[in-house]
Amino acid sequence: MTDADPVDISADASFFRDDEYFDHVVYRELAQREKNGQRREMLVKLSEMEKEHYEFWRTLAPDQRPAFSKLRFWLIMFLRRLLGITFVIKFLERHETEVINRYRKIVYKVEEQHREKVEQFLRDEEEHEKTLQNQIDEPILRYIGFIALGLSDSIIEVSGVHAGFLGVTSSTLIAGVAGLVVGFAASISMGVAAYLKAKSELRQKSFTSGLVTGVVYLLSTIILALPYFLTHDMLEAFTASVALAIILASIFTYYVAVVNETSFKREVLENTLLIMGTAAATFLFGEFLGNLFGIPGYFR
């Protein structure tokens, strides 16, 4: 490209100006709300980096104020409170793929005097930001495995119990109470197992690990049993409970996929198949036992 052969980059400049300004404001707000000194320092660095990018692009797209989505901003603040700072940063990072690809396309379109600056910004997006983001440590991440243990085991086991009772009885109350009893006993068992596991590994606080596993197990058990106390139709209750199980698994899978930068679609499909497969197998076993002992099930 030469000065006699200019390329219009105004649309790209406006895009980068708006995007970098939004990220700058978000990181600045997150830093102001962060109580941990180390994490606050990392967020401040990210905010300053985005501000430098924004101020450069503003000189190339000075025609208007940067567009700013208040709805998206407050959604991110809500996610920060609900799911933690690490999730929010990784969530924002997912958008960076588009930004990086756009940087790569524009780097040789800008004038020679600006090219080095844009190349530096591209390196920031590819390397420096990720380095800073990975330095942010959050306590919840140390217990992700134990949360997954409690949630996945309760979803599979309690869904299986409910499916089994669909083949044995038409009473939603009995099925709901049975799910709660099994879930309560299993939550204690899983909590103790998690406590012993953490104690042997010496990496997490053993009591907290056991408590997290047991509480997550019990809460998910209650959620899955709830439909059985809201309707007297066994099939409706079972369908609603399985739907809740899939929703719970999907929400947590998305959280883990964002934090660990893995594929959400593959993981959620696998979890759904496991839930449905377990439900089908335990229903057939319950139906078999019902026929064997002459117990009147839902379909008999």
Layout of helices and strands:
Blueprint: H1 10-33, H2 37-60, H3 70-83, H4 85-106, H5 112-134, H6 144-166, H7 172-201, H8 206-225, H9 234-260, H10 264-293
Provide the helix percentage. Answer: over 70%
Number of strands: 0
Number of structural units classed as domains: 2
The description of the largest β-sheet is: none
What average pLDDT do the residues reach?
A: 82
- Tally of individual helices: 10
Beta content: under 5%
Shape assignment = elongated
**Poorly predicted ranges:** 1-5
The quaternary organization reads as single chain
Q: What gap, in angstroms, lies between the N and C termini?
A: 79 Å
Q: Supply Rg.
A: 26 Å
Element-level helix/strand string = HHHHHHHHHH
Structural class: mainly alpha
Question: How would you describe this protein?
Answer:
With 300 residues, this protein is mainly α. 79% of the residues lie in helices and 0% in strands. The protein has helices at residues 10-33, 37-60, 70-83, 85-106, 112-134, 144-166, 172-201, 206-225, 234-260, 264-293. Helix 2 packs antiparallel against helix 5 (112-134). The radius of gyration is 26 Å and the shape is elongated. The relative contact order is 0.10. The model is unreliable at 1-5 (pLDDT under 50).
Protein traits:
300 residues, single chain, disordered N terminus
Q: Briefly, what is this?
A:
The chain has 300 residues and is mostly helical. The chain is built from 10 helices and no strands.
